[in-house]
């Protein structure tokens, strides 16, 4: 997995030839001038699968676009700024990556984030339904557990909802898990792959160490400690930055990895699998993160939860009611009673 993410960037940097025809894509980044958006935009500019990069934000996008345009790759960069240019920025995109919104700061709850970010997701989903109804939409904006239902409900109202095409990006949970496991085993992180299911906040994050590749044999105490660290890793970054923001660089990398997987699926590559938070019906939660087989229409097959051990089953039992409440928050925002 590591080589599939990094290799395109290295090839592009070294003068990798641009893609052609249906093998190259227009990618729009909403929130492109933010702390995640800028490094993510750079990674997309370096990706040889991207022929056109559309940058949208409420401010500063022209400067970001000019800066990126000096990078020696064939990808063309266009800037769009302000709400009146939102639709133009999204129009005909193959992939829309949403990082727009306020970041979490010390003392902020996920509810605090939702009260601001839900409106941003609603506006973007309404625009996408109108001008890019077939785009694959990958949403980073927190709280993912609640804003994905917002986007989906908006698309339903517009009669443009396709459950194969809207993703809550939970890749950072996998990236962190792989990193922490590799550190504990003192091995190369590129050799590790651990599925993470559930949601994208606190106790809803469920790493499946029982399905780790390579197989791990941690003690029960180690499993519990590592699970808690993964579930609280976002807070670890927020506190370390001491009010200066939340995870930006690791999130940008993770979003680039997920976007690259989407493009590999669009290109017709086989066996492209990533976890993401999507429309589901698992355990009574209408959205749930699981491994997904990606293809030319987004989700080719939801691979499901699979077999869990007793510890993982208890984690899921804890996660489900939290997710149901998180989902309700998003649905009620679009459809108030």
TrEMBL record:
Subunit structure: Homodimer.
Residues annotated as domain Lactate/malate dehydrogenase N-terminal: 26-168
This protein's record includes keyword NAD: yes
Record-listed substrate binding positions: 104, 110, 142, 176
One GO CC term, this protein: mitochondrion
Protein species of origin: Brassicogethes aeneus
Residues at which NAD(+) binds: 31-37, 57, 117, 140-142, 251
Family according to the record: Belongs to the LDH/MDH superfamily. MDH type 1 family.
UniProt xrefs under InterPro entries: L-lactate/malate_DH, Lactate/malate_DH_C, Lactate/malate_DH_N, Lactate_DH/Glyco_Ohase_4_C, Malate_DH_AS, Malate_DH_type1, NAD(P)-bd_dom_sf
Entry EC number(s): 1.1.1.37
All residue ranges annotated as the Lactate/malate dehydrogenase C-terminal domain in the record: 170-333
Catalysis performed (reactions): (S)-malate + NAD(+) = oxaloacetate + NADH + H(+)
Protein known as: Malate dehydrogenase
Entry keyword annotation includes Metal-binding: no
């Amino acid at each position: 997995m590591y080589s599939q993410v990094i290799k395109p960037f290295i090839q592009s940097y070294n003068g990798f030839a641009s893609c052609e025809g249906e093998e190259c894509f227009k990618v729009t980044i909403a929130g492109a001038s933010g702390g995640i958006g800028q490094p993510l935009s750079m990674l997309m500019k370096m990706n040889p699968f991207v022929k056109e990069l559309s940058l949208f934000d409420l401010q500063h996008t022209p400067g970001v676009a000019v800066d990126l345009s000096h990078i020696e790759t064939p990808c063309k960069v266009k800037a769009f700024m302000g709400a009146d240019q939102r639709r133009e920025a999204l129009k005909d995109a193959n992939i829309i990556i949403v990082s727009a919104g306020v970041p979490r700061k010390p003392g902020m709850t996920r509810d605090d984030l939702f009260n601001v970010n839900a409106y941003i997701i609603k506006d973007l989903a309404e625009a996408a339904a109108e001008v890019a109804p077939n785009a694959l939409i990958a949403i980073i904006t927190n709280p993912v557990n609640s804003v994905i239902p917002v986007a989906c409900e908006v698309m339903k109202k517009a009669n443009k909802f396709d459950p194969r095409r809207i993703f809550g990006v939970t890749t950072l949970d996998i990236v962190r898990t792989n990193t922490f496991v590799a550190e504990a085993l003192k091995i190369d992180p590129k050799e590790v792959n651990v599925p993470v299911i559930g949601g994208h906040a606190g106790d809803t994050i469920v790493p499946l160490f029982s399905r780790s590749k390579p197989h791990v044999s941690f003690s029960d105490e180690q499993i519990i400690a590592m699970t808690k660290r993964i579930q609280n890793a976002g807070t670890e970054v927020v506190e370390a930055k001491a009010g200066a923001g939340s995870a930006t660089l690791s999130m940008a990398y993770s979003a680039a990895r997920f976007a690259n997987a989407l493009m590999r699926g669009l290109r017709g590559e086989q066996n492209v699998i990533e976890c993401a938070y999507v429309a589901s019906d698992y355990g009574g939660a209408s959205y749930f993160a699981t491994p997904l087989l990606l293809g030319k229409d987004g989700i080719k097959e939801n691979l499901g939860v699979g077999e869990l051990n007793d510890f993982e089953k208890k984690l899921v039992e804890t996660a489900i009611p939290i997710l149901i409440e998180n989902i309700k928050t998003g649905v009620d925002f679009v459809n108030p009673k």
